[in-house]
Structures are given as C-alpha cells and as structure tokens.
C-alpha cells in the first residue's frame, strides 16, 4: 500500500513538473540587428552623418587657420622682436585651444543628437517587445546581443529579496 502511494506521489510530482515546465515560454532576439535594420535608424544615421560633415568642415577651417598662423610664425620667428614673437606664440596656442574645445563640443553635440534621435526608436522597439511578450505569454525575452532581459511577465518571480538575503548570510 505504501509503495502504491509512493508511486502515485512520484507520478504526480513528475506530471506537475512537466506541466509547469511546459507553461514557461522564453524568447530571444538580437535588438542591435533589429534596430539597425529599421528605416528610422537609417534616417537617423543620415542626419547624424550630415551634422558630422558640417562640424568637420568647420573643424577644417579652424585647422587651416592654425596651420597658416603656425607656418607664418615659423617663417618669420627669427626676424621678430621678442614681444611680437611671444604674442604670436600665444595667439597660436589660443587657436589650438579653441580647436580642441570645438572638437570636444562637436563630439558632445553629436552624442546628444544621436541619443535624441535614437530614444524614440528604442522606445518603439521596447513597446513592441512588451506587446509580443504579453500577447504570446513569454516569461522572459532575452536580448542576445547584450545578454540582458528586456521583458518579463507578471508571472515571473522577483528574486531580488531572496538574493539580498543570501548575500547577507555570506
């Protein structure tokens, strides 16, 4: 009698474990690839390239000015009075500093524009992932390009407190 009960309990556990495992749905996608193929991303890239070209042209003008001043200085430096030579050296240093500042500001500007252009695209992709996850009953959807979870359902258990408790005992 005990062995029949044991067999029934084992069968129930195996059956419930199989049923539970079948209910879990996981998904994956490569978000970087997906985003790179979107028309909005291609349009954003074109806008960024156009802006980068404008900034590059301004940088070239500034660099040409620096080169011209430096060349002129090098040709005449032996003939110049000490005060004029020092003034020209300071002028070249100031132009060089402006050039460096412009490069830094241009890079920051491009990064800000890229973020502004990509943010709506990323939000759109995230909404689509959320919808697919909810509509299809996925528990998790993994981004294989970054190996992070990009969606989880309400059926998923938050284990943060369990992990914190475990860390406190270590």
Structure description:
The chain is mainly alpha-helical. It has one domain. Helix content is 77%, strand content 8%. It contains five helices and three strands; from the N terminus they run H-E-H-H-H-E-E-H. It has helices at residues 2-23, 31-36, 39-76, 82-136, 160-169, and strands at 26-29, 140-143, 148-152. A three-stranded mixed beta sheet has the order 1-2-3, covered by helices on one side. Strand 2 and strand 3 (148-152) form a beta hairpin. Helix 3 packs antiparallel against helix 4. The longest helix has 55 residues, at 82-136.
Q: What is the compact description of this entry?
A:
The chain is built from 5 helices and 3 strands.
Task: List the defining traits of the structure above.
170 residues; mainly alpha; three-stranded mixed sheet; 3 strands; 8% strand; elongated
Order of helices and strands: HEHHHEEH
Total strands: the figure is 3
- Could you say which overall geometry the principal axes of the C-alpha atoms support? elongated
**Average of pLDDT:** 83
Beta fraction: 5-15%
Radius of gyration of CA atoms, rounded to a whole number = 31 Å
Number of domains: 1
Sheet having the most strands: 3 strands, mixed
- Spatial arrangement of strands, main beta sheet: 1-2-3
The helix content is over 70%
Number of helices: 5
Structural class per helix/strand content? mainly alpha
Low-confidence stretches: none
N-to-C CA distance: 45 Å
Give me the secondary-structure topology:
Blueprint: H1 2-23, E1 26-29, H2 31-36, H3 39-76, H4 82-136, E2 140-143, E3 148-152, H5 160-169
Parallel strand pairs: 1-2
Antiparallel strand pairs: 2-3
Helix pairs in contact: 3-4
